Automatic annotation (TrEMBL):
Single GO biological process annotation from the record: protein catabolic process
One Pfam family matching this protein: Leu_Phe_trans
Main location: cytoplasm
Protein name: Leucyl/phenylalanyl-tRNA--protein transferase
Presence of keyword Transcription regulation: no
A cellular component annotation (GO) from this entry: cytoplasm
Single GO molecular function: leucyl-tRNA--protein transferase activity
HAMAP family: Leu_Phe_trans (MF_00688)
EC number from the UniProt entry: 2.3.2.6
Localization per Swiss-Prot or TrEMBL: Cytoplasm
Length: 230
């Protein structure tokens, strides 16, 4: 994939993150899902989610307590280490299929609607959104997708069709972010869950996240996500 293409700027402003409500994860309602708007949001520490009601405007979140995965703290159990050897990891070979699998309406707490799928496909076409995929026997069996801006990788969702496949994709992502700029990189997972905590995800305050984000945005994109060899 070539270097990302900067889209036209958004006509919306997300304001100064320092002024967001310190007691609420939800910091904005409205705007659109144009590529320039999405990139502006991530650069301010926000991400979108639908309300779940058709016709409602988009919700924008900046969690008070943000889930991040320190690259050196990924927990790889002995069984997961064995699983890693059983899958092939690919990057950006099946982006639409990964998003579709993450959006499967049969999954509990599904939130990815057609508008989100279209918006992130556009970001992918411009070089900003990426998938990390776990393959076995020529089949896509797990993966994740997210947005990469400089040293930020903002994870959006993951799925698996075979045991450990999504975890293996996460291991593959972390391996690709561990380069000579790894200290400045930021792997954002939005909110923590017990499952993510078991893999090494920790919570940081919004203020700490924004400090890390500012540093990460100054770092270069990982070579593995911009069509270069490592």
């Amino acid at each position: 994939m070539p270097a990302p293409t900067e889209p036209p700027p958004s006509r919306w402003s997300f304001g100064d993150p320092a002024g967001y409500d310190p007691l609420d994860d939800l910091v904005g309602i409205g705007a659109d899902l144009e590529p320039g708007t999405l990139l502006a949001a991530y650069r301010c520490g926000l991400f979108p989610m639908p309300s779940g009601t058709a016709g409602d405007p988009m919700y924008w979140f900046s969690p008070i307590r943000r889930g991040v995965l320190p690259l050196d703290d990924l927990v790889v159990s002995r069984s997961l280490r064995r699983s890693v050897r059983e899958f092939e990891i690919r990057v950006d070979t099946a982006f639409a299929e990964v998003v579709a699998a993450c959006a499967d309406p049969s999954r509990p707490s599904g939130w990815i609607d057609d508008d989100i799928r279209t918006a992130y496909q556009r970001l992918h076409d411009l070089g900003w959104a990426h998938s990390v995929e776990a393959w076995r026997g020529g089949r896509l069996v797990g993966g994740l997708y997210g947005v990469a801006i400089g040293g930020l990788f903002a994870g959006e969702s993951m799925f698996h069709r075979e045991r450990d496949a999504s975890k293996v994709a996460l291991v593959g992502l972390v391996e690709r972010l561990r380069d000579r700029h790894a200290a400045a990189r930021l792997l954002d997972v939005q909110w923590t869950t017990p499952h993510l905590e078991s893999l090494g995800v920790v919570e940081v305050s919004r203020e700490a996240y924004l400090r890390r984000l500012a540093r990460a945005l100054r770092a270069p994109l990982p070579a593995a996500l911009c069509g270069q060899t490592t």
